[in-house]
Amino acid sequence: MLSLVSVAKKLFDEAAEKAEKEARKGSFGDTTPQSDDAEAHVKKGPKPVTRPRLERRG
Fold this sequence. Notes:
Layout: H1 4-26, H2 53-57
C-alpha cells in the first residue's frame, strides 16, 4: 500500500510539471515578425492535384 507521503509527493511533482509546461507554453507570446519589410503570413490554398504520368499520357 502506498504511503500518504509518496502519494503527496507524486501529486506535487505532477502539479510542478504541469505548471512548468504552462509557463513554457505562455512564454512565446507574440511571434509576429518585428521588421517592417517582413511579409505577412498568408494562408496558402490546397495543393494542386497532379495525375500520374501514365494517366496524363492518355
